[in-house]
Structure formats: structure tokens, C-alpha cells
């Protein structure tokens, strides 16, 4: 399984050890993949808050290329079978757990997902049943399954905009578990791919909510 470069996967303290709070975060990317600059920037910002961040390559070197015709999207997505993606996420989770066991840390992991990754976050937490993950934050998740979400056992924070067609507000409000935060006037991807001054302003607010959500969820 291909992983991001070590400089992005882990942020080290000056003492040469993993970050001070000793907590690992699995970050699931959008369709543009783990090497995309927006994903890397977000991973770095999360790591700067004391977390050790791992970003797996969900698409095995074949992310959706920017500029490709949308008519080809479903054909591309079908190549990335959900069962295979789930296995890769499980492998990444096990790798993180083993890393923390090796250094005597037993804190639960957190998980963040954006767009495609936000949808897969639901699948992961429903399958995990609280075994490894203590909380999750889903940003405008796509193709989320309400039935699957009912099996989640840990706190989940859902963040989206009210102008987001791929992640309709009505779907989020129907989630049986979790807290929903909706940003007025914001569209898909505003938090990690802001395109206007208004997006920038709300993106900063969303990242503050992310930090607080991780802290509260993992503390609980």
C-alpha cells in the first residue's frame, strides 16, 4: 500500500518522538488523492495541532485527474471497488495501531474524511464499532449510507454547506448519530479547497470546529 511521504504522514516534535498528544489521525482524501496539495496542506495543519496524521492512497496511484470529463467519472469510480478501498483503510489503521503499541501509546485514533473520504468514514466507523477509533469528522461526505451510519458507536461531527449538492443538508439531518454543522452559502469543498474570501473565512471557522471536535471526541 502506497503512503504519503514521511514528512506529511508524521509530524515529529523537536525531541524526535511522535507528536506531543500521542494521538493518531487517519485522514481520508477526496477523489483527487493523497498527493493533492490541498490534502497535504490540510494534513499538515492537523499535524501542527499535535496529531500524528496518516493519509493512505485510497486509489492506488489512480486518483481522479482534474480536468477529465465528468462523463467518465462513474467508469473511473467503478475501478475502485469499495471492498478493496475498505481493505486498504483497514491496513492503514492496523499500521497506525501497531506503531502506537510499539511506543506504549494506547489512545484511540481519530478519523477525518473529505468528500469521497467523508463518505468512506461512515463505512469505517460502522465497521470499527469503537474498537480503534474514538471519534470522526466528516466534511461534506459523498455517497453516505444512512443504514450503515446507524451502526456507528462513537461521536461523529458532520460539516457541510447549505449549497452543497453532493452532500445535501437533508441527508445529514437524517443521520441518527452525530452533530451537524452547516455553513450558510457554502458549497462543496469550501473547507479544504476555498475559492473565495467568503470560503476562506468559513474554512478557518470549519478548521477550528475540526480541532475542537477531535479534542472533545477523543477526550470522551
Automatic annotation (TrEMBL):
<keyword id="KW-0963">Cytoplasm</keyword>
<protein>
    <recommendedName>
        <fullName>Carboxymethylenebutenolidase homolog</fullName>
    </recommendedName>
</protein>
<dbReference type="GO" id="GO:0005829">
    <property type="term" value="C:cytosol"/>
</dbReference>
<dbReference type="InterPro" id="IPR029058">
    <property type="entry name" value="AB_hydrolase_fold"/>
</dbReference>
<feature type="domain" description="Dienelactone hydrolase">
    <location>
        <begin position="17"/>
        <end position="207"/>
    </location>
</feature>
<dbReference type="GO" id="GO:0016787">
    <property type="term" value="F:hydrolase activity"/>
</dbReference>
<comment type="similarity">
    <text>Belongs to the dienelactone hydrolase family.</text>
</comment>
<keyword id="KW-0378">Hydrolase</keyword>
<dbReference type="Pfam" id="PF01738">
    <property type="entry name" value="DLH"/>
</dbReference>
<dbReference type="GO" id="GO:0009507">
    <property type="term" value="C:chloroplast"/>
</dbReference>
<dbReference type="InterPro" id="IPR002925">
    <property type="entry name" value="Dienelactn_hydro"/>
</dbReference>
<dbReference type="InterPro" id="IPR042946">
    <property type="entry name" value="CMBL"/>
</dbReference>
